[in-house]
Amino acid sequence: MPTKSLKITVKDKSTKLPIKGQGVILFNRTSTTNAKFAFFSSGRTNKLSVEFSESGIHVSTNNGPLIDSTNTKGLVVDLTVPYWFSLDSQNQILLSGIGEPRMETVIYSYRFPTALHTSNREFLESLSHVVYDCDNTHLSNGFTPLKILRDPITDSVPLTLKDMATLTMDDVASGSCMPVANLPATSQKLYNCIAGPKFSLDSPEFPEFYKAIEYSIATPGCWCYETLKKKATEFSKDRPNILETYLRITLGQNNGESPGVPYVMEIWPAAHYSPVHSHAGAEAVIRVLEGGIHVDLYPYLSKDVVPFVRADFVKGDIMWISPTLNQTHQLKNTTGSACITIQCYMYDETDDKHYDYFDYLDEKGVVQQYEPDSDMDFVAFKELIFEEWSVKPRWCCFKRH
Question: CA-based, 20 to 30 A from 128: which of 24, 48, 75, 89?
């Protein structure tokens, strides 16, 4: 689940762990050299050394190497790819991975022998600092430390949210959903804004809003149909692709606290999809208002990776994004009807950079920047769709209820 984090400044040569013996260090590779760092106890009596190379992960203590015989992966050529290392004294497990810090991206795993449980735990719990300039040569030894998460990686994190009023003991025991109360404060705020029963597409004054949107999508000359045609080159500049399009209807304005307008109603016609993209390190909550959507999660943004989670969401389902989890995905409408979602974004309170773009992979697999924009304001859109629906021909196959 999301955890508190500690930012690391470029000038830091070492950082105190929030809690002795546990935490996750996140970093980026900055050169072709190996990435090296070490965990030390106070006074540097005990040491856990970590080295990432292109051939694998190499970990050792004062007593020798800690080998994962299945580890065959390490640093990749792309210098933008993030890495992580998890220290867990309670379960006496070391984990490391490429991409998002989670069980699905693990490439190295080591469990300390149970026969030495007490001494191993004492050793791990003595580790209080992570040091980057291990050789006293230059800062970071081939990498840039980004942040330290307080809690270690221990289990898979579900994508689906569940409200506390409907959460059961079985839900908690199985880990099949994320309790809303476990979200960061910013995401809880977003959730509370869009999760209520009255937050729906159809309304008493326009009970056929969803049907009218489908009509606009399917009818030449109508706004949705024509706008989707115009957007065919939005993500594929050289190869127009009408299926790689969707509509962004914004609610409110950009207040400087999110990438683009914080509340966006997205319209996904049947068979349409997004490019693989990331979310500017922002927090987000996404609710399906009508129809269904398929989600593929990726460990990081690159043409060389495959999704590690595939999931389908239907009307009423709500999913979440944090600065370190669920950031990179692709959405596809695999159903036979339009999908309408409400997506809301906000930068974490500790985010002092405010990256304003959603990075995405173009048709050649090259990372490009997309500035979240608006196809139309929600109030104006609703009025326009109502007008289209009101004047549609009587013989139209889109029958009123």
Answer: 75
Looking up tokens 């009587």 gives: 394
* pLDDT 10s digits, 273-314: 999 999 888 999 999 999 999 999 999 999 989 999 999 999
Beta-bridge partner residues of 161:
178
DSSP state of 218: H
Residue 165 Cα to chain centre, angstroms: 25
Tokens of 217: 């999508």
Query: Hey, what CATH topology would domain 161-390 get?
Result: Jelly Rolls (2.60.120)
pLDDT tops 50 at residue 71: yes
Phi-psi region of 224 (alpha: psi -120 to 50; beta: other; left: phi over 0): alpha
DSSP states of 227-275? HHHHGGGSS-SSS--TTS--EEEEES---SSSSS-SEEEEEE-TT-BPP
Distance, in Å, from the CA atom of 365 to the CA atom of 179, rounded to the nearest integer, reads 35
Q: Which two tokens stand for residue 372?
A: 């979240």
- What tens digit of pLDDT does each residue of 81-123 get? 999 999 999 999 999 999 999 999 999 999 999 878 889 999 9
In degrees, rounded to 5, the angle at the alpha carbon of residue 383 between the alpha carbons of residues 382 and 389 is 85
Distance, CA of 126 to CA of 112 (rounded, Å): 15
For domain 5-149, the question of CATH label 2.60.40.3550 is answered with no
**Pairing assessment for the beta strands 358-361 and 367-370 based on DSSP bridges:** antiparallel
Domain ranges of the chain: 5-149, 161-390
Token digits of residue 176 = 């099949």
Handedness of CA 212, 214, 220, 221 (dihedral sign): positive
Q: Are strands 263-268 and 309-314 parallel, antiparallel or unpaired?
A: unpaired
d(CA 124, CA 66): 13
Angstrom CA distances, 278 to 186, 370, 391, stand at: 18, 10, 40
Question: Quick one: how far is CA 118 from the chain centroid?
Answer: 37
* Angle value at C-alpha 217, between 212 and 220, nearest 5 degrees: 110
Neighbours of 4 (CB within 10 A): 11
